[in-house]
Design goal:
Rossmann fold, globular, alpha/beta, 8 helices, 225 residues
């Protein structure tokens, strides 16, 4: 079971002057679900090296069991500090690809041609494709047929408009994940704000928010077994 995890390299929240990146818990929870299931994990990002962590996800209130485990995991930290450059990764080497969220992917991975091509190849090869919270943004330009987005006609979820309103970033982000999924003909559903909600449609697996990251990762493992 070989799983590729793709993280953002983008660290600026629009032109607000605030930092962003990936959301720590949305990386650490899936990372340990995969690792504890015996998966061989490769980490990648557009620029390679250490991807930026959203500082808000390192605040005391955002810490979880998995983030605390990671803080004492020298091997995990070393792997994160040395992510492979996405352009150097071959999807043929993996059984699944998983995208943790955070606001960063809205700016880079959603528009990244290498990532778009990788997801398309994964899908066409029958691999499992997973994304949580803001990371379903990466599907924005993935067409599996001319005029048909990967989420078209499929059950999906992602960060809700009301969750974005709650963190007061509706006017800052380049687009809203919920709106984008619906515009691409995704059969969008959501649970209560901040509550776990995971949607599985065949080999496409999405989670709504940080609370959904562990469940989405477990669904990926389930799909692979």
């Amino acid at each position: 079971m070989k799983i590729l995890m793709v993280l953002t390299s983008h660290d600026q929240m629009g032109d607000t002057g605030h930092k962003t990146g990936f959301w720590l818990e949305e990386f650490t929870s899936p990372y340990y679900v995969f690792r504890d299931a015996g998966a061989d994990i490769t980490l990648a990002s557009p620029k390679g090296g250490q991807p930026p962590v959203d500082p808000n996800s390192e605040a005391e209130g955002a810490l979880t069991e998995s983030t605390r485990r990671f803080s004492e995991d020298a091997h995990g930290k070393e792997a994160l500090a040395s992510t492979r450059k996405l352009a150097d990764v071959d999807m043929n080497d993996f059984d699944a690809v998983f995208y943790p969220g955070g606001h960063g992917p809205l700016w880079d991975l959603a528009e990244d041609q290498t990532s778009i091509a990788l997801i398309k190849k994964a899908w066409e090869s029958g691999k499992v494709v997973g994304a949580v919270c803001h990371a379903p943004a990466v599907f924005r330009h993935v067409e599996i047929k001319p005029g048909q987005n990967i989420v078209g006609g499929r059950k999906v979820t992602g960060f809700t408009n009301t969750e974005e309103e709650a963190v007061q970033l509706t006017k800052v982000v380049p687009f809203l994940v919920e709106d984008m999924l619906k515009e691409n003909a995704g059969d969008y559903s959501c649970g209560d704000d901040w509550a776990p909600h995971i949607v599985v449609d065949g080999k496409l697996i999405t989670g709504q928010n940080p609370a959904s990251s562990e469940g989405a990762a477990k669904a990926v493992v389930q799909a692979l077994s």
